[in-house]
Structure formats: structure tokens, C-alpha cells
Amino acid sequence: MVFISVINLAEVYKFAILNKSEADADKMVRWMLANSFVIPVDATIALNAAKFNAKQKLGLGDSLIYESAKAHKLKLVTGDPGFKGMRDVEYLGR
Q1: Half-sphere exposure of residue 59: CA atoms within 13 angstroms, side-chain side
Q2: What are phi and psi of 41, to 5 degrees?
Q3: CA gap 38, 1 in Å, rounded
Q4: What global pTM score does this model have?
Q5: How buried is residue 64: exposed, middle or buried, by Cβ count under 10 Å (0-12/13-18/19+)?
Q6: Residues 49-81: pLDDT tens digits?
Q7: Contact between residue 27 and residue 12 where contact means Cβ atoms under 8 Å apart
Q8: pLDDT at 94 over 80
């Protein structure tokens, strides 16, 4: 099973609207919702992300994604170079 943060859902939707069309964005999000479990952001995740964000050079969205994975004991799989070398992260980039 694939787990995604609700933040990932928003980021993909925004990217698709800006670079493709709203219809494509809707299609992509429908696929994501049908093929993954969306992890909600609760108060604990939000506050842990704020603490993490204060220490790291990542955006708040990335911090929320990282802390969502951590809260559910999941490995974060990403191509974002900001995560390279971090604990419990599978970096897929170069």
C-alpha cells in the first residue's frame, strides 16, 4: 500500500493545474485517492513539523510530509534533494 500526506495531494493538484489543466489535475488526484491512503495532518504532526522546520532547511510543506511519515513509522520515498541523506528517507534522485 502507498501512503501519502494530504500535503502531497495538494502539491500534485497545484502542479497539474499550473502545468496541465484542471481536468488533468482532477484525474491525477482521483488516481492518487484510489491507489493510496491519505495521511491527515493532525495537531501533533503539525507541531512536530514546525519544530523540525525550525531546525532544517526545508519548507513547511516538506516538514509536514516528513513528520507525517515519521508519525506512522513509514519510510519517506522522494526525489527531493532536500531530503538526501536523512534518516528513514529513500532518496530516488541522483
Answers
A1: 7
A2: -95, 115
A3: 11
A4: 0.88
A5: buried
A6: 999 999 998 999 999 999 999 999 999 999 999
A7: no
A8: no
